[in-house]
What we know:
It is a single chain. The chain folds into 2 domains: about 100 residues, Ribosome hibernation promotion factor-like (Double Stranded RNA Binding Domain, 2-Layer Sandwich), CATH 3.30.160; about 100 residues, 2-Layer Sandwich (SHC Adaptor Protein). The protein is globular, with a radius of gyration of 20 Å. The two termini are about 35 Å apart. α1 links the parallel β1 and β2. By secondary structure, the chain is an alpha+beta fold. It is about 30% helix and about 35% strand. The strands form 2 sheets. It has a 5-stranded mixed beta sheet. The chain has a 4-stranded mixed beta sheet with strand order 1-2-3-4. α1 runs parallel beside α2.
Amino acid sequence: MQVTVKGKQLDVGDALRTHVKDQLASLVGKYFGNPIEATVILSKDAHLYKADIQVHVGRGILLQSNAEATEPYPAFDEAADRVAKRLRRYKRRLKDHHERTNLNQLPVQPARKYILEAAAETDDYEEDENTPPEANGHYGTVVAEMETAIEMLTVSEAVMRMDLAELPALMFRNRAHGGLNMIYRRPDGNIGWVDPAGANGSLKQ
């Protein structure tokens, strides 16, 4: 596995770089036989050090984790421990998913992803109820645009991917009926699931 270690406002020495590469390669290799690549960004903000880890463990599967501590080594070790816990939790499911996608490439739908500028709390504007929000300039400023893909997944696979990548929400095509679905993290810690096809009595999981 190719491991890239970067420092942000921090000089990453050879000893720390070697520690990061060896530890990450060891723990990921233990749970996943053929990981693709990993990136670790170590940074410092005031008195705290932060470690951000991203690991591509398979086609379409991104694992993300981060942690903070008063020293760089503990910050990375804590973030790496979170990676290991998630890999243990999903070890069997990751193996099954990896074997299935190797045998039969699952279809994906190309899509565009946009990031809209958040409105400042001090914004003072009068909204015309007959004009869409984007035309009022309140939500319509696109600050970034990129390509993405909507994959065909079961609900359990979608939940796994959202958990591994620490995402707040995930859109996917439900393998049971091919329709668009959305899962998201609720404030109470549970997972919300939106399935428009379920309203037609076609909810089968």
